[in-house]
Queue: 2 jobs
Job 1
Amino acid sequence: MNAPLKSLDLSFSNRPDTSGPIPLAGLTRQQLRDVLIEHAGVEEKKAKMRAEQLWRWIYHFGVQSFDEMTNVSKDLRKVLSETFTLARAEIVERLVSVDGTRKYLIRFAPGVEAETVFIPDVGKSGALCVSSQVGCTLNCTFCHTGTQKLVRNLTAAEIAQQVMIARDDLGEWPTSNEDRQITNIVFMGMGEPLYNLDHVSDAIDVISDGDGIAIGRRRITVSTSGVVPKMTELGERTKAMLAISLHATNDPLRDELVPLNKKYNIETLMDAIRAYPDLSNAKRVTFEYVMLKGVNDSPAEARALVKLLKGVPSKINLIPFNPWPNSPYECSDWETIETFADIVNRAGYASPIRTPRGRDIFAACGQLKSESVKMRASEKRKLERGEASSG
Ligand code: SAH
Ligand code: SF4
């Protein structure tokens, strides 16, 4: 093969093509420095300082115009605005629930759409649920994303932009604004984060940086279905909190619900969890357990769960199953969930049931996109029939 011409690596960019201004929102410090040198003619020795200046405007103040960058010379601002953009990806759907949950469907490129959900908690805190991939290669049988093919991994910039977009919408700039509600980030949207670890890790660097968005690493949780070989690396690179989608306490059932279990069984998974860096009572693993009627919800299974987690600093999150069209399961009855929760509670795990949020806007992580697509289709049909939109 001939020596390749030096071509620009735009793999971090979210541009559907290479025309038009380069988006800066979501880039890492290194990427910012690189694009300033390559595209704005900034000298190498000054690039670091310039990147620092821009970093603060982009991630602390959340500005969307270069004119606001008052400590940057007019001439450079002109070059920047001709070369780059501070715009975010497009929100194609935004729904606000009566309980304050907000759901966004974001289009990063044609056919590349992912969902982000803001889940308010008590008081001023709340979690933003972000996606790491569009679709998923795994096929957990209770998960709607699992029925969708993987479209592609999201880039670090696209993941970080989900946080920026939600902050724009909630009016949370600058970071020093004390009324901020997004205090935690959970990677529990679409996709398997550990199959996109490089970008997830870079995105966490951006989101947690103290001079910018400043959401601490202890407030960032990455959920995995159990990609054992990547778990230690996740802990070492990101220092994030770990969540495990367990859902079953024996291999035959977990093989069925989370097919990845055939590759990394429960014993292997538990070993990897015990080896997770810095695990302690202050840094517990969250075990997610979806409540499926007649499948995994018996008192015996609750006891098996307690037994399995013995000695592992853990929290348990019981998730009422959120049904989707033609899903092969039903959510357990409330009484069954309470009985299960009681057993788990008595073993020392506090308030483990995750209350369903934003049901009116289909806001359960992992199934928003499909519902939105369906809703848009039904809205369209209504319009075609000449009926008024229900909004
Ligand atoms: N792929 C990762 C992260 C995304 S899924 C993982 O599997 O952990 C985030 C969480 O939502 C997982 O615990 C998943 O099991 C859960 N989930 C998926 N579909 C669900 C549904 N229909 N009802 C309730 N929880 C669901
Ligand atoms: Fe993928 Fe997680 Fe859904 Fe399983 S539960 S299909 S790993 S998104």
Job 2
Amino acid sequence: MQIHLYDHAEQVGQAAATLIAAQVISKPDSVLGLATGSTPIPTYQALIKMYRDGVLDFSKVRTFNLDEYCKLPIDHECSYHSFMREQLFDHINLPLDHTRVPNGNAENLQEEGANYDMAISRAGGIDIQVLGIGRNGHIGFNEPANAFVYGCHVVNLTQSTIEANRRFFDSEDDVPRQAISLGIGSIMNARKVLLLATGEDKAQAIRDAIYGDINPKTQASILRTHPDVIFLLDKAAAGLL
Ligand code: GLP
């Protein structure tokens, strides 16, 4: 496990984008595991810049997102489908049919989860997985629990996550209560994992993930057992280490 510290969130984004760029340059048909949230936005901006500067070509890349809210229309401004288009997909030459985000509106969500995991396997597995972290240590939408769940599955969001994500919606009542998320097994199967954390409100989760017990109460703690994981942190997120 590697931990890299940076002064600012922008530098975390530059570092993550550099590692993703190296992956895409060395394997043009890379499979990227992507995350939403405020944390990876500087990474996506840096990737867009590298594309515009002619350094990166995404035409053969395939992507799988970590998660999506359930029962939120795909074109809702707060859906992760919309987020990815706005923050990345619409600005680079990645064919939209090479991108996948779990379908939180599928009639049979269990089947959707199984199909999603299968699609990742058929694509050859994830080469590099980008992760943020929830204030409660969640990765994807794998909330604190009594067990780690292996596959893509439906999750009941915790009050802490609903409150954290409320800022994107008109009111707390509008925040969906359920999501569909890649499981811990699929995340751990990625060949390389980048965990990004910025800001003081992530400091406790980062401390628990790095120094706490490896325990499903802090889902990110399992990453310490991954053979190739890099934590990219700004000073504020590393403040309790
Ligand atoms: C959501 C996402 C996570 C993300 C987390 C943190 O809950 N499901 O994948 O890591 O938010 O978001 P932010 O980066 O905005 O703090």
